[in-house]
Amino acid sequence: xxxxxxxxxxxxxxxxxxxxxxxxxxxxxxxxxxxxxxxxxxxxxxxxxxxxxxxxxxxxxxxxxxxxxxxxxxxxxxxxxxxxxxxxxxxxxxxxxxxxxxxxxxxxxxxxxxxxxxxxxxxxxxxxxxxxxxxxxxxxxxxxxxxxxxxxxxxxxxxxxxxxxxxxxxxxxxxxxxxxxxxxxxxxxxxxxxxxxxxxxxxxxxxxxxxxxxxxxxxxxxxxxxxxxxxxxxxxxxxxxxxxxxxxxxxxxxxxxxxxxxxxxxxxxxxxxxxxxxxxxxxxxxxxxxxxxxxxxxxxxxxxxxxxxxxxxxxxxxxxxxxxxxxxxxxxxxxxxxxxxxxxxxxxxxxxxxxxxxxxxxxxxxxxxxxxxxxxxxxxxxxxxxxxxxxxxxxxxxxxxxxxxxxxxxxxxxxxxxxxxxxxxxxxxxxxxxxxxxxxxxxxxxxxxxxxxxxxxxxxxxxxxxxxxxxxxxxxxxxxxxxxxxxxxxxxxxxxxxxxxxxxxxxxxxxxxxxxxxxxxxxxxxxxxxxxxxxxxxxxxxxxxxxxxxxxxxxxxxxxxxxxxxxxxxxxxxxxxxxxxxxxxxxxxxxxxxxxxxxxxxxxxxxxxxxxxxxxxxxxxxxxxxxxxxxxxxxxxxxxx
Length: 641
Hints:
This protein is an alpha+beta fold. The protein contains 19 helices and 30 strands. Helices cover 34% and strands 23% of the residues. The protein has an eight-stranded mixed beta sheet with strand order 9-20-18-17-10-11-14-21. It has a seven-stranded mixed beta sheet with strand order 1-8-7-6-2-3-4, with helices on one face. Strands 27-24-23-30 form a four-stranded mixed beta sheet, with no helix packed on it. The termini are far apart.
C-alpha cells in the first residue's frame, strides 16, 4: 500500500518488525555512520538493543554482545550504502558495503528494504543523518512492491539502480544484485505513482511539465516547498529555471512559494533571492509567499525546532485532483534540470496523482517588504579526493590514486594514527600485514584538511572481523554442539566455552568420539534440514556454509584432525562418510530465491575436499575394517573405488 506523501517518523518504515530481512540499499547525500550503525542497521536486521541508552560503539560487554549479533546478521543479509563522497566524515565500523560517489553531487534519499515477501521502497527528503532522521521537517513516501503483483515503480527503480551503478563506477554490490533480481520478476505497468530521477533521459523539470500537459484538466494552483539554501550545498532559487517553470502555467494560476525563515525584529530572515520574488510577482500576479518558522508547535503545545528540509511540488487541477512530487529534488537548476546526458546532481523523487491535497504545516503569509535576505558565509574548503579505491585482500591494503588530482605532500591515517607520509605523486600505495580493526575507513590529510575513504573488503564472506572473532579456540565438539541445537545463539556458545576452558576441560576429537557420538548424528540431521530449507539470497547460503561454526569450519576440523593424527583413521572415516551422506543426498525445496544448481555447486566444493580423503582411507583399510567401510559406502551410495 502506498503512503501518501506526508510528514511522519521515518524509523517506523525502516524497521523490520515481524518480517524477514533479505537485503537493503540506502542512498543518501549526508551519511552519519554512527547513527546508521546504532539505530537504522540493527532495526532492519532485527537486532534489538533492549535499552534506550545503549551505545553500540562502546567496549562494554553489552555493546560487544550486540556488535557480535549485528556482525553475524551481516553475514546473511547484504547491505549497501551509497553516499556523496564529499560529505562523508568516516565512522563506519561494520562489514557492509559503503560506496561513495564522487565527481557529481549524489543527492538522492531513497531506501530499499527487501523482505522475504516484498520490497519496501521509501523515497524521502531525509538524509541518513541526525538532522534528517530526528529533527528536520522532512517529506517521505513509501510503497511495498510484491514480485507477483504489477507495479508502476518497479521498472523505474530497476533502471535507476543500473544507472547509479554506472555513476558510482563500482562493481555491483551483493545487495544490488539481489534487489535487481527481485525487481526483474515484478510485472511492470504504466501509471501512477512513478519514480522520477535525474538518471533518466528526461529531467525532473520536463517530467513535471509533461505530466501537467498530459492531464486533461486545467491547472489552478502550484505549490512549491523548498529549503532554498541548506547544509546540503544546494544553491538558492535559480532565476531562469524558476521563471521558465512558472511560465508553463496560465497567468491566472495561483503560485505559492514556501521557504524557511526566522522572525527577528519584525523582519523574516531568509536565504532567498528577493529579486526573483519580485519578478515572479510581476509576471504572475497570483504569486504568494509563505514563511515557515524554525519553531513548530506540537499537539501538546510545546515548541520544537524543525528546520525545513522537505522538497515538494504540488499542482492542483480543476476538479480538485492533485499532482504531487516529493523526494530529494530541490527547486534549483542543478536538481531540476539534470538528466542522464547532463548529470550534475543525482536525484530521486516520486510523482503521484491524488484526490487529496498535501497537508502543508502551519506557515505565515508574508509580503516582500517583510523579508530580509541573509548573506551566506564563505563555505569551508575541502580537499579534492584523489583516492580511486582502497581495497583489503587478506592482509594487503592497496590504495589506488589518481595522479592528475593528487596534491602532495599528504598523510594516510588509520584509526587516528599516521601510516605514512607521501611526498611525491604516486599511483599506488601498498601496506603489507595490514590488520583491519574496528574502523573501516582510511583518512587522507592534506594541508590540515581531511577526507575519508571506505575500505573495500575483498572476499568479504571469508573475512572474520573483530566482532566475529572468538577469545578462545573453538573446537570440534563446539561446532557439533552448535549445529545440533544445544545452543540458541553463537553468544551463548561463546560464554559456555569460555567457562569450560577456564575449568581446564579438554576438547579433542577422540574424547568427543567416544563420549558424545550421538550429538554428531543429531548435528548431521539438523544440518540436512538447514541446508534443504529455503534461502533468500545466494549471499546468505554461502555465508551459512562459511560461518564461524558452519559446515566449512566443521570440514576443516575433521580434515585437520585426520592429517595431524589427532583422530584415528576409523573415526575420521565415520565423520567424513556421515557428512558426505548428508551432502550427496540433499533434496532442496523449490526455491524462488536461490536455484538448486547454485546450492549444488557450493556444496560440491566441500564434497571435493572430503571425498578424496575418504577414498584414501578406504584404500588403506584391510580385512574386517575394509568390509565395514564397504558396507557403509554401499549403504550411503558413496563411490570410493
